[in-house]
Write a structure and sequence with these properties.
Elements (H helix, E strand, L loop, with lengths): L4 H26 L8 H12 L5 H19 L2 H20 L9 H20 L8 H12 L3 H19 L2 H22 L5 E7 L3 H12 L4 E6 L6 E10 H14 L4 E6 L15
Antiparallel strand pairs: 1-3, 1-4, 2-3
Helix pairs in contact: 1-4, 1-5, 2-3, 2-7, 3-4, 3-6, 5-8, 6-7, 7-8, 9-10
C-alpha cells in the first residue's frame, strides 16, 4: 500500500519523539548511574565507558553499519529507510539532548530509566521504522518467527549483562537487569499491549443461539469448526473468533448467561493481521 504524505509525517513524528525520549533515559539516568542499555546501544555505552574520550553518537553509528546491511536484505525497504532516519535521529539526540534527572536511589533510577527508554523505543516501533541496532534484529525475528520484540531484546541482553558484571561490578549488572526488564515490558505494552487481541474458543450445545447473540450484540464474525466428542463420537460444533480484551470479557458473560454448561477458552495472541484486527505495526 502506497503511503500518503500524512502517513510519512506521522511515522517521522513518532520516530523523532521516540528517539528523543530514549535519549533522555540514556543521558539523564543510564550514563550518570553507570547502567548499560539494551542491545547495540548498551554495547556502545560500554565502549564509551571504557574510552572516556569517545563520542557515543559516533560509536552508535559505527556499530549500526553491519546491522543495516542485514536490514537491507531481510526487511522492507520502507522499514530500512525509516530506521536509517531513526538511527541518525537517535545519534543526534544522544549528542544534544542532555536533561539531568535528579534521582539518586539506584533501584528507583533503574525502574524510571526502564519506563522512559521502553516508552521511547515503543513509540519508535509504533511507526514503520526503528532506531536501528537490536530493534532492527528484533523486527526481523518478529516478522519471520513471530517472536515478541520485548523477549528478543531481553535475550540479546544476556551478553550485555555478563559483560557489565565483568567490566564493572555485579551490583551494576543487577541494576541493569532491573532496567532491562522494565524497559522490555513497557516496550511490549506500547507496541502491542494497548491493542492486545485474544483468541476465544466456545464449545456449547447452544452454539447456534450463541452465534446469533454475539453477532447481534458485538457485530463479530465467528468461525464454526466441526468437532466430535471423544469416546461417544457424537458430533459437535466449536466456535472460534478473535476479540479485543473488552469483547472477550463480554463473550464470556454471554456464554455463562445462556449456557451454564458451555465451555469457553480464552488465549492471548502474539500478533494478529487482517480483517481490521491487526494489532502490530506493518514493518
Amino acid at each position: 500500500m502506497k503511503e500518503t504524505s500524512i502517513d510519512i509525517a506521522k511515522n517521522i513524528m513518532l520516530i523523532t519523539i521516540g528517539t528523543i525520549i530514549s535519549s533522555v533515559a540514556v543521558n539523564g539516568i543510564l550514563i550518570p548511574h553507570h547502567f548499560v542499555s539494551s542491545g547495540i546501544t548498551g554495547l556502545g555505552i560500554v565502549i564509551h565507558y571504557l574510552f572516556k574520550s569517545s563520542n557515543l553518537s559516533v560509536i552508535l553509528i559505527c556499530l549500526n553499519i553491519p546491522i543495516f546491511i542485514a536490514a537491507y536484505v531481510f526487511v522492507r525497504k520502507r522499514f530500512f529507510f525509516y530506521s536509517l532516519y531513526g538511527m541518525a535521529c537517535f545519534a543526534l539526540a544522544v549528542n544534544f539532548v542532555k536533561i539531568e534527572i535528579g534521582i539518586h536511589d539506584k533501584i528507583l533510577s533503574a525502574i524510571l530509566a526502564g519506563i522512559i527508554f521502553g516508552l521511547g523505543t515503543g513509540t519508535v516501533l509504533k511507526s514503520r521504522g526503528s532506531a536501528g541496532g537490536s530493534d532492527v534484529l528484533s523486527v526481523i525475528l518478529m516478522n519471520r518467527f513471530s517472536i515478541r520484540i520485548g523477549k528478543t531484546v531481553l535475550g540479546f541482553n544476556v551478553f550485555v549483562l555478563i559483560f557489565t558484571g565483568y567490566v564493572f561490578t555485579p551490583d551494576d549488572a543487577i541494576y541493569t537487569l532491573i532496567y532491562l526488564y522494565v524497559s522490555s515490558r513497557i516496550m511490549d505494552l506500547v507496541v502491542t499491549g494497548l491493542s492486545k487481541r485474544r483468541v476465544v474458543y466456545i464449545i456449547s450445545d447452544k452454539w447456534a443461539e450463541l452465534i446469533t447473540i454475539i453477532r447481534d450484540e458485538l457485530h463479530k464474525g465467528i468461525t464454526v469448526i466441526d468437532a466430535a466428542r471423544a469416546g461417544s463420537g457424537q458430533s459437535s460444533k466449536m466456535l472460534y473468533t478473535v476479540a479485543t480484551v473488552k469483547e472477550a470479557v463480554r463473550i464470556k458473560e454471554i456464554v455463562k448467561k445462556h449456557d451454564k454448561r458451555g465451555m469457553i477458552i480464552i488465549q492471548d495472541t502474539i500478533e494478529v493481521h487482517g480483517r481490521n484486527m491487526t494489532n502490530v505495526p506493518e514493518w
